[in-house]
Every structure is written in structure tokens, then in C-alpha cells.
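Researcher: Please translate sequence to C-alpha cells.
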Amino acid sequence: MGFKDAGVRIRVEKGLRDEFLETCRRQDTPAAQVLRQFMREYVAEHSDETAEPCRKTPGTPKGAKT
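Model: Translation complete:
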């Protein structure tokens, strides 16, 4: 794998973060490795889609344009 030169910062619920890190620890796998693998698989699965993604934000009224 090549040199990593970009970072991603996300916000998640503390409980989800804690469970994720604990699961990675139990599997003796770095969390970053799990996230990179997820990203690769997600891109491979969705890279040929032409439909625009839904950009609704939480709290957007039903039927509202975003």
C-alpha cells in the first residue's frame, strides 16, 4: 500500500466510536485499516453508479428540496 498523505475527520456518537475501537482492539486490527478497507469496498461497489446521491440532512421536512 502507498504512502498515506490525506486525513479524514468525522464525528460519530461516542458509544459507537468506543464500540468500534474495542472491536478493533479485540481483533488486533488497527481502526484505520478497517476504515480504509471499508472505503475501498464502498468505492468499488458504488463507483459505477450514475444516480445523484440523496443529500437530505437530518431534520429536513419530508418533500423539501435540499
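Researcher: Any highlights?
Model: The radius of gyration is 16 Å.
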